Amino acid sequence: MDCCPRVADRKGVSVGFFSDYRATRRDERELGEGVWRRAHDRFKRGLDRYHQILESVRDPELRAAAVPVANDLADLLPRVRAVCMEAHVRAPSRSQDIPHSTDGYLSDVHRQLSRAGNSMAQAAEALTMARFAAGSHAHSSASGVAGEGTSGLVGESGCGGDAAGSPEQLSAPSQGVSAIRRRSTVVTEYVTAAERLLGEHAEHSPQD
User: Fold this and answer.
1) Residue 112: which region, alpha, beta or left (left: phi > 0; alpha: psi -120 to 50)?
2) Could you tell me if residue 205 is inside a domain?
3) At CB < 8 A and 24+ separation, what contacts does 179-185 make?
4) How many other C-beta atoms are found inside a 10 Å radius of the C-beta of residue 105?
5) Which spans in 56-104 are helix H?
6) Which end of the chain has fewer surrounding CB within 10 Å, N or C?
7) C-alpha distances in angstroms, 195 versus 49, 108, 138?
């Protein structure tokens, strides 16, 4: 009996297996297995989640606004990786303890990375909420159109309910877009802060 798991004969499966294996080994080499690796992976999971949700967005206005944000957030991943790689070079980590550094600056770097990861997850959550709001808005709009088609000249009867509700309904996708953009801006600010902290302490050796 073979001691190693079998790899399917299909070329695509085999290539995918070894590609994932090489990627994992590279991550272990460049990011370690401690706090820097976890900070990077947490950010990446949040980014992946954002893109997964984006695939299910059907509202044209929301999708048109969310796609550029997705691109901006994706551009941050190499920057986060670079910060984590440099931090690992200066102070390798294989545990949950943040390595010692002069003035505790690496703790500050890790804090900014953690905040970036949290905000990345919140950006994905904001997109989820915006998607639901846009779906509800579309459903309400469709119901309103159907109601107009079956109630004759209701709009002229003086009830005014639809006119009063329209501005709030129409603002639903826009409100979601604003929340997503705000969260994206915050993510960028935290990543930039982590980069700045590393730059300010570039002259220090790993264990100063």
Assistant:
1) alpha
2) no
3) 179/126, 179/129, 179/130, 180/65, 180/66, 180/69, 180/123, 180/126, 180/127, 180/130, 181/65, 181/69, 183/119, 183/122, 183/123, 183/126, 184/69, 184/72, 184/73, 184/123
4) 17
5) 60-90
6) N
7) 24, 11, 42
Residue 9 falls inside a structural domain: no
Q: Pick the closest to residue 76 from 35, 126, 112, 104 (CA basis).
A: 112
- Cβ atoms of residues 43 and 77 within 8 Å: yes
- Inter-residue contact 99 to 106 (CB < 8 Å): yes
Give me the percent of the chain exceeding a pLDDT of 90: 56
pLDDT digits (tens, 9 = 90+) for 173-192: 677 889 999 999 999 999 99
pTM of the model: 0.73
Domain total for the chain? 1
Tokens 């550029």 locate to 68
Domain span including residue 111: 33-148+164-200
- Please check whether residue 13 lies inside any domain of the structure: no
137 lies in a domain?
yes
